[in-house]
Amino acid sequence: MLEAGLWGFGAALALVLGALVGLSGGIPRRIVALAMAYGAGALISALAYDLTEDAFAHGGATVVAGGLAAGSLVFFAGDQLLHQRGAARLGARMKQVGTNGPAIVLGALLDGIPESVVLGTTLLAGVGVSVPFLAAVFISNVPEGLSAAADLRQEGHRPMWIIGLWVGVAAISGLAAALGYGLLGGLGSGAVPLIQAFAAGAILAMLVDTMIPEAFSEGGDLSGLATVFGFATAFLLSTVS
User: Fold this and answer.
1) What is the structure's pLDDT at 123?
2) Using CA atoms, how far apart are residues 86 and 95, in angstroms rounded to an integer?
3) Which of 212, 214, 209 is nearest to 230 (CA)?
4) DSSP state for residue 95 in the 8-state scheme
5) Coil, strand or helix at 104
6) Which of 170, 110, 163, 136 is nearest to 39 (CA)?
7) In the chain, what percentage of residues exceed pLDDT 90?
8) CA separation for the pair 192, 47 (Å, rounded)
9) What is the pLDDT of residues 28-50, one digit of tens each?
10) Does 94 score more than 90 pLDDT?
11) The whole model's pTM is what?
12) What is the pLDDT of residues 146-160, one digit of tens each?
């Protein structure tokens, strides 16, 4: 359980790394957006090949459909709550300052927990952690943390508060990986596909609602190419045996 927790925590620390870069303030906004597009492509590949495809192979269509629906609905409900609270807190500033930062944090948490659980369960086979899946998660987490940190800073949050937030997300992810190893081993094969599908649903909803629109609005036409490069990188990693 300790090893699984450390792997999950290590993968999620990429969020903290991205946040540190985003708070430095020395990166042009367009570069941040293109990094986000790259991460979005990596996430699309991860949810398609490492999560949904594997969930279908081991759980069937019903499990995949239920997990996708549950993940997307939970993200949607949480995102709506954030927008409502943001509107009440920021008032007129909502027209000038978006709430993509909190939404990306929510998406990272909702997909990071199931991803970490899945990461922990890869150790159950006794062959070690899944390196391709670990790399895809790490690659996608850096631009997530970078972009969200920049947005949160723009919305008036202090840098230490932002870093603490991402450290908390990383700690929760590490705990989820440990629990995935410790608890899911005795629950049978049906639990992991459902968790994988839930993660895929949360990721896809977050991508379309927050990361992709912001990447295109700030990154321009190059965001499409960056997304393809991210997808290709993660896909090639997923083919590594």
Assistant:
1) 64
2) 11
3) 212
4) G
5) helix
6) 136
7) 7
8) 14
9) 878 878 888 888 888 888 888 87
10) no
11) 0.73
12) 777 877 787 777 888
User: How far is the C-alpha of 80 from the C-alpha of 76, rounded, in Å?
Assistant: 6
- Give 37's Cβ-side CA count (13 Å radius): 23
Task: State how far the Cα of 225 lies from the Cα of 50, in Å rounded to an integer.
Answer: 22
HSE-CB at 68 with a 13 A cutoff on CA atoms is 15
Rounded Cα distance between 62 and 91, Å, is 43
* Alpha-carbon span 13 to 119, nearest angstrom: 14
Token representation of residue 82: 């954030």
Closest by CA to 83, choosing from 170, 195, 209, 173, is: 209
Residue 221 identity: D
Note the helical H segments in the chain: 2-24, 29-45, 53-90, 100-121, 131-154, 159-184, 191-206, 212-219, 222-238
How far apart, in whole angstroms, are the C-alpha atoms of residue 135 and residue 235? Answer: 11
**Cβ within 8 Å of residue 96, ≥6 positions away:** none
- Per the structure block, which two tokens stand in for 98? 């978006």
Q: Are the C-beta atoms of 3 and 127 separated by less than 8 Å?
A: no
The string over 115-137, giving b where at least 16 C-beta atoms fall within 10 Å of a residue's C-beta and e elsewhere, is bbbbbbbbbeeeeebbebbbbbb
Q: Which residue has the higher pLDDT, 63 or 84?
A: 63
7 contacts 135 by C-beta, under 8 angstroms = no
